[in-house]
Amino acid sequence: FNKGYGWAIIPKDRSILEKNNLVLDTAAVKELSQKKELFQEDNDSFSGEHGIANLLPFSKKYFPSAKILPIIIRDGLSSDNSEKIAKMLSLVTDLTSIDLSGLVGLIGKS
Description:
Layout: E1 8-10, E2 23-24, H1 26-32, E3 39-41, H2 50-53, H3 56-62, E4 67-68, E5 72-73, H4 79-92
Parallel strand pairs: 1-3, 2-4
Antiparallel strand pairs: 1-5
């Protein structure tokens, strides 16, 4: 937790996906990285991020040709920034799956 500086942290390159031989959605990363007030490119924040690392092998098994866009959403994201991020994601990718399990304890808190 509390890694990186952006509200939404995206990978700088595909190195975090190499272990599972997955394809990074580089077009989406390129677009999102232009919105520096919301998105930060940072591979280091993904080290030890078990929520993403544990799901990647399943993605490879069940969706072998999928392009992956891992995103870490920081704690404390405002509703306004949440809506901005959702809008940007809808413009750059066909979102198929999202794991919000890390937010379970935060739902309903202001």
